[in-house]
# Entry
Amino acid sequence: MDAENVADAICKLCKRLGIECVWRQPGTERKNAKRRQSRAIKVRLSSVEETSGVSATHMLIDTLRTNLQTSFDYEPQTNVFSLPFIRHLSETESRYLDYYINYVSSTLSLLPQETNYLLSLYIPLAVHNKAIMSGLIGWSGLFLAGTKSEETPMKYIQNAVDLCDKTLKSKELTIPDKLELVCVFFILCAAEICVGDVKNWYDIFGRLHKFILDECNGNLKTLLGLLGDTEGAKWLLSNFLYHDVLSSSSHEEGTLFPIDQYCEALDIIPGTTQLMDSGTVCDPLQGCVRPMYVLLGQIINTKHKLDKMQEKLDAIEDRDSYKQKKFEFLTALEMDFEELETRIKNTNPHTPSLLLLKDDKELEDHLTLFETYKLSLRIYLRYMIRKTPPALPEIQLMLQELTLCMDVIMDTNVQSGLCFALMVAGISCVDPVDREQMEARLRSFCSRFPVKNFELVLILIRKAWELNKDGAHCVNWFDISESMGWYLSLA
# Structure
């Protein structure tokens, strides 16, 4: 894409988001801008660096910081490689752990490494928790191999599972025990998802769900207290939300916890016309897009509610009663659609995540990712609520905008967040040229990006095209996933 088209895309984003445009012509950006990169040895969280306000980006960030009502400081973490336990790792273990710190964590994170909970939470805990250490080593080994056929990483994964099972049998679990167990579950889930697993990850996620239910009786606010009510505990809850709304099972049956509970625990205000994410915890897997994931959960649960209403409607035999109930059903459907559409349009990015970005290009990439999700959700809303077929012009018009945004951020630091958007864009393609370009786009992406569930997305998209050759029907990706016996994660 040439510079003029990119500039036009960015300017449109700024207009949509209601902010001053910060696009700068090539050659005028700050010299030697520091791109996000791993800090390797020292795993630290630092407060946001003060800016001088010279550039347009810094003026925007200063404005955001002024309007932010919450404190946003982090405590630095220990230099973990100075600790004796780390020095006693074998050569293989050290190599895998180094690969996790230097590559895995930065590849998956949308945010700078110094604010990445994949490092700042997991690594200090791994120093004294063998299950977490084994899980990280196994995850790193699987990520490096790209397959579960490698014996060594699987040995560490199994060791983490065994240690986790042993801890669960303890009669009394302390707050640190519970926090560390949740971490192990998430590490094991992530390890499976990264190699394209479509079953084991969901079994582990189901065990985590049961553990949470047993501990807090289904009250997520209570769970935070049981995990120590720390920023790390809040990130774990945010991570559960992320995996919940991106699970094919949740799209079929509704989320595992009500979205209102997630919002209450994470300081998110689910307003009628706009969702306000005021939480100070910045999720490395969601970044500024987290409000869109919350809205995705609302779309999922609204669809589930309407499906139940449709089932009751279909069971009515009396014609007069049927007509009245059908009117009520269609009225509720349209009201739900309009309310969700309004929220999607009016919701802004998660401000604290934007405050962490230190150069113009990163800000542009994150705003583009946010716009990508906004467009994806508007298309997906039409599929889930109105059952709109992709061939209709309104879908095709939004698809053109969506693919433009995706192409802007391919091969950038935010590309790991594109899985759901690629699925929506893929099943929306109807024209043979669009389908050919989408397949080429995904093939190229999969050849460069190591997370294997993107390859599964391409398989499902192809299947959707087979089932919907002319785009005249609404075909759900999660129905295809279920028909193949998959529990797919779009994380």
